[in-house]
Amino acid sequence: MENTTPTPSRKLTIILTIMIVCLAAALGLLYMKYTKEQTDNAIVQEALEEQKQSLTNELKDMMSEYEGLKSDNDSLNNKIDKQQDRIKNLLAINANNLEKIKLYKKELGTLRDIMKSYIVQIDSLNTRNQKLITENTEVKTALDVARKSNDDLSKEKQDMSSKLEVASVLSAKSITVSPLNRRGKDTEKAVRVSKIKASFTIRENALAKGGDKTIYLRITNPSDQVLASSEQDVFEYDGQQIVYSAKRAVTYENKDLDVIIYWDNAGQLLPGNYNVDLFCDGKLIGSSTFVLK
Hints:
By secondary structure, this protein is of the alpha+beta class. The chain has two domains: 40-160, no CATH class; 172-292, Immunoglobulin-like, CATH 2.60.40.10. The protein has helices at residues 8-68, 74-91, 97-124, 128-160; strands at 172-180, 195-202, 211-220, 234-237, 240-243, 246-252, 257-264, 272-280, 283-292. The protein has a four-stranded antiparallel sheet with strand order 6-3-8-9, covered by helices on one side. Strands 1-2-7 form a three-stranded antiparallel sheet, with no helix packed on it. Strands 4-5 form a two-stranded antiparallel sheet. Strand 4 (234-237) and strand 5 form a beta hairpin.
């Protein structure tokens, strides 16, 4: 009868074959893991590149804004030139994406503050009436820029919410503005409006600072005039004291918070388009519009 017991050399061949198969499987798993890590790194790098490019564009826009501030005042023009050189040097820095993002964010805030101080200096060169008109125009421009920036940031946060850190600034959603008559019913007639009701929700934000807050409502009529009870009703926004229409004290606990603010009409409404802005902690947190006939 034939002996079927494997010879030592055959046993060795079988063992080597098994080891090779196991090694090949292990190498395959390592390759798959390496490929996944490379893909994840590429996604994060793409997100960082997008944000870096966005901040780069902001710096370039600020360069143009500084240029627009130049006048016949040589002293002020020299200061503006220095800030423009600062922006050029900042854009020329050779650093990785993450380093540039951190640096650009920090420098953008400083450059904006400096620009505001230059705007104040320019205003001081005009007469009192001219200054008041200019300040009103500048505040409107700043609000328009803030509204656009708010919209752009909201879209950017949605596109990159899974890749970047959530901002800690409060924001308002579901903003509804309702002109009401004396019976508390909605109306579109300017002559019938008794009060304006602004209802909204402050979004949940785990990173925001909770506690007592003051929400400011600012209503601007078709003539770009703020509807206010007194010129003394002011708060700070972008380094300036600006007038508000009404305010409301709330306690924010980092959860969705429903808020309603009323503004009482004293017979000063005109037909046309109105802008409504909401502020908290010195920041624009939401905007809306309404129309009266």
